[in-house]
Amino acid sequence: MDNSLKGQVALVTGGTKGIGKAIVDKLSNAGVQVIVTARTAAKEITNGQHFISADLTQRESAETLAKEILGKYGRIDIIVNNAGANLSPGGGFSALSDEHWINDWQLNFMSVVRINKALLPTMIEQKSGVIINISTGAAKQPIWEMTMSYSSAKAALNVYSKALANEVGSKGIRVNVVSPGVVKTPLMLEFIDNIAESSNITSDEAFKAVMDKVGVPLGRMAEPEEVANLVAFLVSTEAKYINGTNYSVDGGALPTI
């Protein structure tokens, strides 16, 4: 990794735990001024990181965030739209209410659209910037029993990201997608425990069921840092000709190239 990130200003949403925290730490260690946002603060914010509390499912949050970031730093170089979660119950179409669909789409799709819309004008004025939208392998390989509404929102995010990359590439802004598979995060471990409880099986049995369903040739979950490493590369000048691409970090789970 080169020194191109030193002194840049980045926003990482959902940055207090799991993949988001790993990305925050990686960028901070590379000399980036990182603004972290989540609903609740982490126990510890280090390395000069700037925390802003925000509920990204609320329409006004993006504008409030943008105002505070630009008021304090005057620029934005990197946006990592990491906040997201599978909020809905399993069980397929009949288990999902309108509210389930709306909640998944608000958090996993509309929050990204709003953050980018609020901050892109500054990137366009700067004639530079990088946006990374964190998606999921489930957007290409949905599991109807577990991820129907979540997968559909993330699939929309993939299409939106490609369209946005085509629109703003000529303005000096790159947009790429990173799609993790099964990652060892608090949310994933909670998801597995919920499956275990609802199915009356052990957590180990639930983990095996998920891994068998997804089919990971490497046979393990990813560590959050393994996703963060790719994000750090993609936002650096070493990746300055990479735009409009979706990268899988899934241990080989996606059955196609």
TrEMBL record:
Protein name: NAD(P)-dependent dehydrogenase (Short-subunit alcohol dehydrogenase family)
A Pfam family this chain is assigned to: adh_short_C2
Taxonomic lineage of the native organism: Bacteria, Pseudomonadati, Bacteroidota, Cytophagia, Cytophagales
UniProt similarity note: Belongs to the short-chain dehydrogenases/reductases (SDR) family.
InterPro entries reported in the protein's UniProt record: NAD(P)-bd_dom_sf, SDR, SDR_fam
Domain of life of the native organism: Bacteria
Organism in which the protein naturally occurs: Rhabdobacter roseus
